[in-house]
Amino acid sequence: MATIRQGDTLTLLPWEYFWIGFNRINFPDLFDQIWMSSGVLLIVLIVLYVLRTRALHRHRHYLDMWEWIFWSGLITYFLLVVGSIFQFDFAVILVILFTGLGVMAWARFRKFPPLFEAYEHQLARQRYLARARSSRPEATIRTKGVRRRGKKR
Asked: By the 8 A CB rule, do 105 and 38 touch?
């Protein structure tokens, strides 16, 4: 396992950098940017999740999508911070990053759009039927039912 000291030139082969610890000394350009942006994105993700779930509490498919995005983002960003603290190999950091971002993108752009489209058709059908029912004046007036003669009390 090779380590790079401060001031050393980059003398390792490109694929050898995958197997050294991810820390400030070995990756001075990336280390602070990755763990700080992971922390900020984690906070932004939590705020967005809370706001969107409050706004969309009646729409199950949208809530399901936000659950997918929230949990995959929470795991990804938290693991990036943990990987920075415990100096995981750079290859592990890259696997965590690309897998987590891939899952979030897949959930948002591949898994849920067909469900959203079907849900929008269902809502449009409900709006049409409600409009059709209320367009007839008889629909708003209660009709008196046939009175049955029953036993007297």
From this structure: no
